[in-house]
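2 proteins. here.
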Amino acid sequence: MDDAPDDGAAVLLAAADRIESLAARTTAGSWQLTGLLGSRPQVVARFGDGSTEHVAEVRAHTGEWIATLSPAVGGPLAAWLRAAGNRPGPAGALAVARLLLG
């Protein structure tokens, strides 16, 4: 990718759109690492009404990572990327955007 300012802004805005799209179609709720499902820990989404939904069966060392990066992070992350795309921001934002876009 070219490092021109307009290109960087486009990358940041595209990453923000991708994060919002992914978060919108992923199980909502407060994601938490819970007990075992079979032999592995599981990530469960807890909802305001007290109900739960299984999100993923995980390896022990990745469960906290997955639970931490729940869809709840999507909105603030997209807002940060979009803000960085609309005005000069931290160089790290562009690096994050490029990683998110693959």
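next one coming up
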Amino acid sequence: MPVVTLYWDELEELVGKRREEILEKLPMLGCDVERVEEDHVDVEFFPNRPDLYSVEGVARALKGFMDIEFGYIDYKVSKGNWKIYVDESVLKVRPRIVGCVVRNIRIDDRVLRSMIEVQEDLHWTIGRNRRKMAIGIHDLDKISFPLKYTAVSEDFSFVPLDFEEEMSVREILEKHPKGREYGFILEKAEAYPMIIDSKGNAISFPPIINAEMTRVTEKTTNLFIDVTGFDENVDKALRILAAMFADRGGKLESVEIIYPNKREETPDMSPMVLEVKKSEIYSLLGFKLSDEEIKLALGRMRYGFEIGGEVIKVFVPPYRADIMHEWDIIEDIAIGYGYDRIQPTYPPTPGIGREHEWFKLKDLVREIMIGLGFTEVITFTLTNERAQYEFMRRKAEPWKDFVPVMHPLTEEHTIIRTDILPKLLEVLANNKHHAMPQKVFEVGDVVVNLKNRLRLAACVTHAKANFSEIRSYVQALMRELDLEWDVKESDDEAFIKGRRADIIVRGKKIGVFGEIHPEVLEKFDLTNPVAAFEIDLSEIFDTGYVI
């Protein structure tokens, strides 16, 4: 979670209170005070409150909570004569762009420091490490409008931030520190996003680096902010930054974004309007609040409101990117009312809780396997079709046999696992340089036919690992579980024909064991024989098994 450094002189100046009073109220904002020093305090905030990643945002929240200011801040945005033309070529690369102009802002080293820190925190949270959203802040007076947001080739060149000589896009991605750090985002791009002014000067190569030409210094008085990305996250980030600079005394002006088929003006600093029922507040909090108490709580949390009858109309500040549902507002009402004023009570319960049979079985199986000399491992539930099926000589169809991951970040994590055994073979492959024999097991969830199933898988590897050895472990497990079992010839291609068997309990197949096929071993780069089994513990439950 983001840790924000707040300097006492700045925070005391913005809030208008002494540090002792501020320190007492800080945890009420939903944060952890990590470290208190003579000149600053380090505070950890949850990722769902990006508006608190700056000293301006924290001061704004504290002034409401400490009854210095009350209610909604109406941020005024003057209509500007600033335009950005979006070229069709960039729509397939990084299609969204928004902008804002901030005039008459006083920049000193504290503002510069806060600006850089909040940018990086927003990149990490809302921007998902710049994948979804990236910010550029520029000296407005160095830019000639209108701007063009377009896509360029890798040979396009300009002077990037912190450098003195021109570099091509290709060179920036290969040599510039930010290019090496974030170049993976554009790894498969055929063209590269670029913001160019009317004189042909590049001002930003999102999401990598700004141009040196538009560097913000302590002499800067007017700012241009651009935010690029793919969805509404760009709007969220821009509204947070606009509010931050407005709180510093800056005057906001709109920027017109002209797409091939539409136009829009940004930033939109109008409030989102949600309706909250009083009965829902009483139901969730467990006690009644008067209208005055609700008003006071909402005002402290910087909301606007209109109370009439049962329904409260709430005006959500534009910088509150975390508010999605009326329950989010009710949570803030509780915070504004004061958690310390809420008396905890024990809810009436019809019975006494006990451990679920499912977990009893998991613990019992773990004890048995450890008693048999196996080491427990825990692997990722996300995997890929190649490891689960191709390497295991098995076939499958998406959705029918496995659940694919939408928009996977890597080729290694494209589906939710349907078997644990391939993951154990990966563990053995990563540990083949260690002494033999190796015996590992895992008890965990898989998803088959869109349903969660509890599985147990185990592997043994050494020079003489064979069918008889793994059968003895299955037999010991069944004996300890007090289950009568039988075997039947298996057709699982992951195992060697003639050295594989299905496990049958009460006439139902619950698993398979045997010697892993040499082709499978080769795919996983294993040199020693492997004997293994995998059992569906959910099937044992389905047979009516009771511990």
